[in-house]
Design goal:
Shape: elongated
Largest sheet: 5 strands, mixed, barrel
Strand content: 25-35%
Radius of gyration: 18 Å
Distance between the termini: 34 Å
Number of helices: 4
Order of helices and strands: EEEEEHHHH
Oligomer: single chain
Length: about 150
Amino acid sequence: MAVVSSDAPQPLDKLSGLIERVTYFNEETGFAVLRVKASGHRDLVTVIGSLPSASAGEWLTAEGMWVRNKEHGLQLKATALKTVPPTTTEGIERYLGSGMVKGIGPIFAKRMVERFGADILSVIEHRSGELEMVDGIGPKRRLRVRAGITAQS
């Protein structure tokens, strides 16, 4: 990992991992500060850059240069960011429980993933009536969840 310390052109570093936390996101500019659980790094990595949206639980690929901020420490300043909806049960639970869908918090996200596993996103989109089998989800919450996921797509 090269840390930028001069004006000389540096090769871009690549990083991929699970977004653990969205520390900051500006909807107008797309600027984000993300904490990422990245392979090859023991601790969470801070990634800064711009993207249309970001949610905890999404898979992130980033390309950029490492910089050391006097106040915030080592960060990957990304020139290219891309997110992909999660595919693991852990990622899906974090994604659903992140607050991005009105009506689902961490508790309902856990219940839904326990009931349907990694299929939960497909259940919400194609068989949303089955959500009512989850304790605490009735017709109103089911419709709110479906609308929230549809809005994210």
